TrEMBL record, chain A:
GO terms for molecular function: protein serine/threonine kinase activity. InterPro entries: HATPase_C_sf, HATPase_dom. This is Non-specific serine/threonine protein kinase. The keyword Kinase applies.
Amino acid sequence: MTAGIDLGQPQAQSVRSDEDVVRVRQLVRAVAVASKLSLVDQTKVVTAASELARNTLVYGGGGSVEVTVVDNGRRKGVQIVFADSGPGIADLDLAMTDGYTSGGGLGLGLSGSRRLVDEFQIETSAETGTRITVTKWSR
Amino acid sequence: MERVPILKIGDILLVSIQLDMSDQTAVQLQEDLAERIVATGCHGVIIDITALDIVDSFVGRMLSTIASISKVLDAETVVVGMRPAVAITLVELGLSLNGIRTALNVERGMELIAAAHADELDYQLDDDLDAETATP
Ligand SMILES: Nc1ncnc2c1ncn2[C@@H]1O[C@H](COP(=O)(O)OP(=O)(O)OP(=O)(O)O)[C@@H](O)[C@H]1O
Ligand SMILES: [Mg+2]
């Protein structure tokens, strides 16, 4: 499954179609397994990645995802960066609220995925688009 | 695009999701199921998600929508086989599977549907009796 992937290097996946969102899930799962995350933590980080990659596609107009194995000396983890050059998020507090959606969604993608990971960082502007970095550590 | 197969077993439609579905595949399944419910007149739908290692907001919403559509078409939907890690993650994500009945496995799901259908028949029978006694 992970054959042919050098997990020492960041893995990139472009996000241009909903098939790419499937590929992001598979890539994140492979890296989560390699980082020795528990089954529940694997499930959480793959679910968060699915939400954020779909936002990159739907609201960011497409973009890219980069997945890296990180090591803080004590624990291993998975770090994922979602980047697009879309319109950015004008009201971040509102967007991070449970249930807020500007489309026809449930409005759980951003707020829910923040709960599912250990670290969640977001940079967004109309000029540069949106860049979200999340990290999940092994226990 | 891949399609999820729908099997008819007696009075029940069984959908066993075996692949990591793209959003398009999920939407297609919704439409295919609605058509099959009408075409077959089945009163129950079982969606087996044993093989799914995640359920995100999109698939969660699809399951709720299928449950609502089938209700309107006089069929009961039961989702079976949810993995424990998936259930834990769903709750933390904040997804409430509104209106969705769940059961441990396909057998239990079939029992649930049979019971729901029997209740409904009873109810209709009661209605008929009431109607009879009410008319002079
Ligand atoms: N990458 C992005 N670029 C621009 N806007 C975004 C981006 N990601 C999210 N948003 C905005 O934030 C809102 C909330 O996103 P969130 O993922 O929480 O909900 P949703 O996608 O609308 O619904 P759900 O994910 O539950 O199906 C979106 O409706 C959208 O307006
Ligand atoms: Mg979303």
